[in-house]
Every structure is written in structure tokens, then in C-alpha cells.
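Quick review question:
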């Protein structure tokens, strides 16, 4: 117990909150024989998953068919709508040529594989319904076939259960990234953002792979870390940015071999994951890349505010400006890493890079907060700062559904929704606040909760020359 960091001893907010249960743990307190920190974190993660399901229950009760409920109750999820929208009701294989009958899956391949696997389980649980009738109908009429609506709801439940298991894996790995600090993972498991957005899409898959990559790196396994980064990039693009953080710390320590091992492993695992889809239908596989390149300003982005304020915003403009800004962020992180007194921690640099990417991205969906969550928890494990940041996320989560349901502005009037604009700006400012705190910790390492001595480095991280 003495070797485990105690949140109530080092986190002022945790210490204050502990007063309702008797105050901070005593110096001579004996650990519970069964309720270890890891088990407590996993139990809280289970509770978060249950609360996430409860939050979606109004939509579940209507089989996701009530368009007003999904916004009024803020229970929307992409998952059940893609059951028919991408052909899973007919077991259409993702990235295969459907002759234009269904829109091609616009997500990276591991999400496509995962979604198809959940569809197979749904069909099995439904008694393998006859698909011939569905295939003879126009695609937009499949949902009306007897039993399909119920299957769509079951598909969400199957996906949710699978993602619940993924969440537990992520939480378990988070407890082991920093030796002696398993309680930091509680900031992940008890996150309000996790409860609200964990089941909006399949992003938890990438979150678990990022947690696995950070765990492997911290345990001196750069090849395994690279494999997880490659698989993460085959799930969502952003795990690729972890390689930038690894490069900075390895360059700073003049030991690039671990980086090259991780980069090679990431490339290999990414290719292995993508090869089946590329062979199945190369044109369909490229849809993810073309879709994101061609789309314009979308939900949650500062670009949308600028566009709705009356300015011209084209996909080309967004692509160019976002690329230049992101390149500047990467250059800034490199300069920060090389100029800091001590080698920064990987999670700190990775958080700054991913946050910089999201700030000017053309779309900033509510569930994208999950991209930052494990990185933020490891970069700045303090309740106060993380709750300030997530307050902005919770505000935006509510605002986006009110906006889509036209509850805060009349779509017929054509007036812009300034409440939604304000929510976007507040969300960005809260994110910038957390970025500023992390930058401060890098520049003044004794302010870093994990490096209060000003000296401690990540395991495997190259030692300053």
C-alpha cells in the first residue's frame, strides 16, 4: 500500500471529497484483501457502462424509431441506424461492392469488421432470419420488414455489450500504465464524458488500443506498442499521432531504436488489418479517405460557426488551413519536447498533438472526447482540471442534440443557433485550458503530479544525455 500513490493524499479535490466518508486514508491503513485498486476501477467502469445504457434507454424503448425522442432525450447513437443504413440487416460485407444498393462503410476497417461481427451475432440471436425478402426490396424499405426494427434494437444491445467488454480492457490497461498509480485510471472509469458518449459510436475500440499502446510502451515493449498503434490507426486515424510523441522523447534521449521498432510494427499491423478490405474492394476501402477529404464544415467545429456566421468555407479551405495549423502544432510539440528541462512524458505530448488536431478539425463529434480521455487522464491526473475540461464537453453534448432537434433555434426561421455556437466555443476554451496546464507541467516538471520530484521519467523513456 505504501508503494501505491494515494489520491486523497496528493489531490486536493479528492481529499476534500473524501470528507463525506471519513477523510483521507490514514498512513497506516491496511489495504482491503479483495478490493484492490484495479478491481475498484473495474467496478466503477462497469457502473459507468450501466449508466451509459440507462442514458440510452429512451431510444431503446422506442426501438430507435422516434426522431424527436433521440434528440429530446439526448440518447442518439449511430449504431442502430447503420444496421439498415449500411446493409447489415442483409449481412452485406463491409467494403464489398453492393452495386450502389448501400452506402459504403465510411469508417476504418476494424470498425467495419467489428460492426459486421456484431451483425452476425444479431442474426444468430434472431434465429437467422430469411434475407431473400429483404434483398428483393428497395434498400430504403428494408427497415419496414417485419422484425427488422427489433433486430436493429438488438444490434445496438449486442454492440453495447461488446463495447462494455472493450471498456473493461481499456480501464484495466490504464491501471498499469504508471506503476504505483493505479488510482489514476479512476479518472477514466468515472468520467462523465465516458458515460454520455461511450455508446454514440464505436470509438471505444480505438480508446482501448491507445491504452494498450501506452501500457506496452511503459512496460518496455516498443514492438507491441507499435502493433497496438497500427491497429488503433486501422480503427480511427488519431492513434497514428502517438508515433509523433514517441519520436520526440526518443529523439530527446538520442535513442531512436525504440521508435523505429514501434513505427515498423505499427506499419505492419496497419497493413495486415487493412489488407482483407483492400483486396475485397479497393475502391470501397478508399471511401474513408475521400469522404473525410471532401466533407465540409460539420458539427462541433469552429469552421461551422464561421460558416454559419456568413463566411465562405469550402472543403479545400478547411483542408489547407487545418493541415497548416496541425503541422504548426506538431512543430510546437517537437520544440516543447526538445526545450523542456526534462524529457516530457509520452502521454503529455500525445495529448497536445491530438487536442491540436481536434481544435481545427472540420468535424468535432461529441464522442471525440473519448479520443482525448485516456491521454488527458495520464497527462494530467487531477480531478479539478479534468472536470473543468469535461464540463465543456458535457455542455456541448447537451447543446448538440438541442441544436439538431431545433429546440434552441428555429430551423424554419433560418436564424443561426447562437447557443450552439457558444457551446462550441466554451468546449474549445476548456480544451485549451487543459492544454495550457499540460504545457506548464512540461515546462515546470515539479508541477506534474507524476513527477513532483522534477526528475521522474516514463519507463523506457530515454534518459537525458
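Suggested answer, residue by residue:
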Amino acid at each position: 500500500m505504501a508503494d501505491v500513490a494515494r489520491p486523497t493524499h496528493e489531490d486536493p479535490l479528492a481529499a476534500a471529497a473524501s470528507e463525506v466518508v471519513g477523510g483521507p486514508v490514514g498512513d497506516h491503513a491496511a489495504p482491503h484483501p479483495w478490493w484492490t485498486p484495479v478491481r475498484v476501477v473495474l467496478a466503477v467502469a462497469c457502473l459507468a457502462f450501466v449508466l451509459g445504457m440507462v442514458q440510452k434507454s429512451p431510444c431503446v424503448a422506442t426501438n430507435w424509431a422516434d426522431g424527436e425522442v433521440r434528440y429530446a432525450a439526448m440518447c442518439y447513437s449511430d449504431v442502430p441506424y447503420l444496421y439498415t443504413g449500411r446493409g447489415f440487416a442483409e449481412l452485406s460485407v463491409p467494403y464489398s461492392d453492393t452495386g450502389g444498393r448501400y452506402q459504403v462503410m465510411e469508417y476504418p476497417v476494424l470498425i467495419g469488421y467489428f460492426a459486421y461481427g456484431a451483425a452476425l451475432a444479431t442474426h444468430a440471436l434472431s434465429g437467422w432470419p430469411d434475407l431473400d425478402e429483404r434483398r428483393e426490396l428497395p434498400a430504403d424499405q428494408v427497415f419496414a420488414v417485419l422484425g427488422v426494427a427489433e433486430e436493429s434494437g438488438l444490434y445496438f444491445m449486442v454492440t453495447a455489450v461488446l463495447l462494455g467488454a472493450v471498456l473493461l480492457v481499456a480501464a484495466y490497461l490504464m491501471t498499469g500504465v504508471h506503476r504505483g498509480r493505479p488510482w489514476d485510471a479512476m479518472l477514466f472509469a468515472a468520467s462523465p464524458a465516458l458515460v454520455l458518449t461511450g455508446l454514440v459510436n464505436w470509438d471505444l475500440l480505438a480508446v482501448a488500443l491507445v491504452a494498450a499502446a501506452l501500457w506496452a510502451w511503459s512496460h518496455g515493449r516498443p514492438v507491441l506498442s507499435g502493433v497496438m498503434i497500427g491497429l488503433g490507426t486501422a480503427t480511427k486515424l488519431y492513434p497514428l499521432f502517438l508515433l509523433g510523441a514517441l519520436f520526440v522523447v526518443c529523439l530527446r534521449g538520442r535513442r531512436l531504436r525504440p521508435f523505429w521498432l514501434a513505427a515498423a510494427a505499427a506499419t505492419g499491423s496497419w497493413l495486415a488489418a487493412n489488407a482483407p478490405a483492400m483486396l475485397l474492394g479497393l475502391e470501397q476501402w478508399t471511401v474513408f479517405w475521400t469522404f473525410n477529404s471532401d466533407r465540409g464544415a460539420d458539427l462541433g467545429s469552429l469552421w461551422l460557426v464561421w460558416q454559419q456566421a456568413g463566411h465562405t468555407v469550402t472543403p479545400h479551405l478547411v483542408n489547407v488551413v487545418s493541415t497548416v495549423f496541425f503541422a504548426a502544432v506538431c512543430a510546437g510539440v517537437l520544440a516543447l519536447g526538445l526545450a523542456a528541462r526534462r524529457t516530457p512524458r509520452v502521454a503529455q505530448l500525445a495529448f497536445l498533438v491530438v487536442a491540436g488536431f481536434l481544435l481545427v478539425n472540420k468535424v468535432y463529434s461529441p464522442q471525440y472526447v473519448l479520443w482525448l480521455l485516456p491521454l488527458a487522464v495520464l497527462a494530467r491526473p487531477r480531478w479539478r482540471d479534468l472536470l473543468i475540461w469535461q464540463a465543456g464537453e458535457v455542455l456541448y453534448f447537451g447543446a448538440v442534440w438541442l441544436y439538431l432537434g431545433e429546440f434552441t433555434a428555429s430551423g424554419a426561421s433560418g436564424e443561426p443557433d447562437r447557443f450552439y455556437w457558444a457551446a462550441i466555443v466554451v468546449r474549445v476554451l476548456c480544451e485549451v485550458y487543459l492544454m495550457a496546464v499540460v504545457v506548464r507541467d512540461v515546462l515546470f516538471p515539479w508541477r506534474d503530479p507524476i513527477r513532483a520530484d522534477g526528475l521522474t521519467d516514463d519507463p523506457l523513456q530515454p534518459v537525458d544525455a
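Why it works: The mean pLDDT is 89. Residues 134 and 142 are 6 Å apart (CA to CA).
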